[in-house]
Design goal:
Helices cover about 40% and strands about 20% of the residues. It is globular and about 55 Å long. Strand 6 and strand 7 form a beta hairpin. It is built from 10 helices and 7 strands. It binds S-adenosylmethionine. S-adenosylmethionine (SAM) binds next to helix 3 and helix 5.
């Protein structure tokens, strides 16, 4: 009875947290502005450890479940850049599944750089790791055949600049994929995702609320994602939700490809479909 009451209370709080999507932008501004929870500050050692231990495996599970989507969004050959690669669980997975790939993993956190270096030791030297910021990528223009980033852009202090940097280092015709928690995500999708966290089941309800407020609450919604893509020299730019997950993706191909593509500004479909 008491347990049932608590469960019902938690369910209501979770639902309440998810109806707060509309104030998500203010929430981000208030929290970052007051310095209370500035997710654009570099990861501390314990944050990096916590993420790598409890959350990153859930992101990797999601990636594995949606491998068909990822295979379409991430080129299987050439030299790719992963921006904000974290501890490299996804880097190692992508490198091991695609022997034709070379990956440069980049992250701001020393702790994560050490982890990804360790984790990708078995990849025949096809992964190299760089510590740098997404806002100042230390590579010449048009270096990479593809650039992707997973769950990192919400941490960048200047997302427009980071996106422009990603496109700058992309070769013409190369693909961009930026995935992030969707501020407009559905409660059920968040529950399913948080269900994969490697934390005790009893705290998963609270983790759903924390995800809403502290993760998705800081992410872009579909309109933000479209605004981030607008004006970039991308062909086939689109922002869409990844159905069944609490994430959205921003996709595009650098314009001026061999086929003579030109940027199609303002061509992002209103409903996110192709
Ligand atoms: C939530 S983790 C995601 C890690 C990994 N992509 C994954 O999905 O498991 C975000 C990562 O972005 C990195 N990061 C944050 N701000 C960054 C920046 N300005 N430049 C590069 N990396 C950054 C953090 O250090 C952290 O490792």
């Amino acid at each position: 009875m008491v347990g049932g009451g608590l469960g019902l209370g938690l369910d209501l709080v979770e639902r309440l947290a998810y109806t707060m999507g509309a104030v998500g932008r203010d929430w981000r501004a208030i929290m970052i502005g007051s310095g209370s929870f500035d997710i654009t500050a570099p990861y501390s050692a314990w944050e990096a450890w916590f993420y790598d231990r409890f959350i990153a495996p859930a992101v990797l599970d999601l990636k594995k479940e949606r491998d068909a989507d990822f295979a379409q969004m991430i080129p299987p050959r050439g030299h790719l850049l992963e921006v904000g690669c974290g501890g490299g669980q996804i880097t190692a997975d992508i490198a091991s599944r695609n022997p034709g790939l070379q990956i440069t993993g980049l992250d701001l956190s020393w702790g994560q750089v050490k982890r990804v270096t360790r984790r990708t030791r078995g990849c025949d030297g096809r992964v190299r790791v760089v510590r740098a910021s997404a806002l100042d990528l230390p590579f010449p223009d048009e270096t990479f055949d593809g650039v992707y980033s997973i769950a990192s852009i919400k941490h960048w202090p200047d997302q427009e600049r980071g996106m422009a940097e990603c496109v700058r280092v992309l070769r013409r015709g190369g693909r961009l994929m930026v995935l992030e928690a969707d501020r407009g995500c559905k409660l059920d999708d968040a529950r399913r995702f948080v269900g994969r966290y490697r934390v005790p089941a009893v705290i998963k309800g609270l983790a759903v609320i924390a995800f809403r407020m502290g993760v998705a609450g800081y992410g872009p919604d579909l309109d933000d994602a479209r605004a981030l893509l607008a004006g970039l020299p991308l062909a086939e730019a689109e922002a869409r939700r990844l159905d069944g997950t609490p994430a959205l993706v921003m996709l595009g191909r650098k314009a001026g490809a061999r086929g003579g593509d030109r940027p199609k500004r303002g061509r992002i479909p209103a409903d996110g479909s192709e």
